[in-house]
Amino acid sequence: MADRQIHTDVAIIGGGPAGSTVGALLRKYDPSLTVHIFEKERFPRDHVGESQLPFISSILAEMGAWEKVEAAGFPIKIGATYRWGRSDQLWDFEFLSRGKFEPTERPGTYAGQRMETAFQVDRAVYDEILLDHAASMGCIVFEESEVVKVEKQDDSVTSILVNGPDGESEVRARYFIDCTGYSGILRKVFGVEVEQPTNLKNIAIWDYWKGAEWAVNVGIEGTRVQVLSLGYGWIWYIPLGNDRTSVGLIVPASYYKDQSLRPAELYEKSLQGDKIVSHLLRNAQAEGNLKSTKDWSFLASRLAGGNWFLCGEAAGFADPILAAGLTLAHKGARDLAYTIIEIEKGEIGAKWLKAQYSDGNRRQISQHIRFADFWYTQNGQFSDLKDYAREISSDSGLNLSSDEAWRWLGTGGFIDNSTSSTDIAGFALYVTKNITASFCDENVDYKIFGKTHFRLDLEGATKEWAANYYGGRIHRHECYVRNGKSLPLLGVCGFLTHGLAQERTAEQIIGAADLFRTQHDMSQEDRIRLPRLVVETMEALVLDGWVIAETRPGYKGWPRFEVDYERIMHENRDVSWILKSD
Fold it and tell me: Three-class SS of residue 394?
């Protein structure tokens, strides 16, 4: 018999970034909802996964938490330095479209270049900030409160039993959300199948260091993370500020087993064997709290049930090579908050809303897993693991050429139904093309360049509804669906689809886009971005088979897309000095 009963609208199990984000956004957009968060640990507590991507900043701003995170003084992530691919050279990936970070005073505001940057966060501090923020939004938070039992009926949760400092509580809610990470409490209770769509089965070993140097210090606390391939795995090096640096090692589980070394021994051997890392740590001291975990990508077969949802790493996990973990967690949490709010309004069917949440986020996780696979197969530095990379490639059906890689990466479609954006795993199409081409030692190729005539191909497609998440509401828009790929009639996709109802020449399409830009009320930034978005979207429409591109004599073809790729990816300029030092 429980000591007390709690009745609430939404019960969130897990108070990490996913749980805090769901809770804060639910309270922001529908303050009438009661939201309880049950976290089994007492914050602050360490957690791996500190490197962020810029998309997170937009969600933090929407939550009203960006300024609080900025006030913590975390390093500003402007990109990453890699030793990856087919040579041992260092190269930089830059977040900033202009390619240069301009020092500014801190704490700053979420504007200008800061909208293109991210944070490198100490999770002990970051997670507590977000949980406290959720509480400030009206969420009722219980720490040191572990779910010890789940009662269910059919495909719904009837109650959960929570063991906390004040005894046991029986919690009844209209919605239950599983944000328990790999543990996946509700996922396991309802027997949700887990797919492992890759042979990547790695383990992670890490510790935190005091007195470690930053490899890069650009302006006021602007820096890049270091991702350094070894012959048998790779090292992450992430400055967290406040004299704390996260340094981790990723190796295949099979390699770890064959080495017959304890985690601490393999970790020390790897760090000392890398010239860059050993140099940066030469005056540093480890905190001595070494941790290790299996690091296997997985994807839940469904993310929603009768009155429950999976969110964050309970829904799926992608290899950390792309630093996607927190992005997927925050985005999934945002989509879920919108979903519950919309179900409450009752204007759109709950079944459809749940399917949009589940299918959309499964696609996002799957793309990150797929792109991570590609990165591993293209790493010529894994000299001891060529068979391992070949196995990943073979099982995925990946032919190691740029053209075949694109077909494989785009299996799920290059166009995001919810935003009409064109990307792979959150990377803009032109960025992903450049990465793919550089890995495969080929030129960046666009299918539309030089083509003169374009026509829409909707044969076999059906018209359906898709979800667009913004402003606290889910807005339905029409889309065409064919063979698992979607064409949303939204944004630039909708503009081009409408314009291509009749066959058009490249010159006509470009002229229409220019006219649209001059006749519509747009920000200066959007005016600058529109030509690139038109090119990227047209390319995606061709890649996904929605548009047929042809070349006919006597017409002017689509001009090449002028992108300064050197701003986005270039040879490293500020870490290589370490390799030349004694």
Answer: helix
